[in-house]
Design a protein that fits this description.
With about 200 residues, this protein is α/β, with parallel strands linked by helices. The protein is built from seven helices and seven strands, in the order αααβββαβαβαββα. The longest helix is centred in the first third of the chain and has 24 residues.
């Protein structure tokens, strides 16, 4: 009786051992669950964004913004162009001081298809003004600049904006090639744009 019991126990242990061996030989792909597969795909999709930063040489953070008409546009849709990004508010006197120069520069570079100017109004920092009030400010001052809106300040937070104006210059590959947290004059802005164009051509 004891012998039969021992044989049965041995047979069960052998069967369990055999199953474990088969399991260990299966490929990792066969063992992944649908949830693991989804997580892996999301990880790959987010890899480029995880590598993004806010310093010269970093890949610029991608984001979705609203234009003056309320249309959604993604920054990465503009890849292939040198992009001038400036975070601003209507109450920032340095921002307002730059507007006439930016208008002139926009009128010059808007004729080219390799440069984009985006003035990002941080609406959450506008001290009570809404999108319509900002648009009215632009209209009253005769500016038809390409202003877009950071509604909740999320983009400004991504770009570590601590004051206005804050300016980033991106090359055609979406790399940050210049940035400043100070007001900049017309000649400096043109130099930033031209350097970004040259950087794009080199790469």
């Amino acid at each position: 009786m004891k012998k039969n019991y021992s044989r049965k126990a041995f047979a069960i242990l052998a069967a369990v051992f055999f199953v474990l061996i088969l399991s260990s030989c299966s490929s990792p792909k066969e063992r992944t669950t649908p949830l693991q597969d989804k997580a892996g795909q999301e990880s790959e999709l987010n890899q480029e964004q995880n590598d993004a930063g806010v310093f010269v040489g970093d890949k610029a953070h991608d984001f979705i913004f609203l234009d003056k008409e309320g249309n959604e546009i993604r920054l990465s849709d503009l890849k292939g162009k040198a992009i001038f990004l400036q975070f601003w508010t209507t109450w920032c006197r340095f921002c307002v001081h730059q507007m006439p120069n930016l208008q002139e520069i926009y009128e010059t570079y808007s004729k080219r298809d390799d440069v984009v100017l985006l003035l990002i109004n941080v609406l959450s920092a506008e001290k009570g003004k809404d999108k319509d009030a900002v648009n009215q400010f632009l209209e009253e001052n005769g500016y038809d600049l390409p202003v877009v809106f950071d509604i909740d300040g999320e983009v400004a937070a991504q770009y570590k904006v601590r004051g206005f104006p804050t300016t980033y210059m991106l090359d055609a590959n979406g790399n940050i090639v210049d940035f400043t947290t100070e007001a900049i004059e017309k000649e400096e802005i043109i130099e930033m744009i031209e350097n970004a164009i040259q950087s794009s051509e080199r790469n």
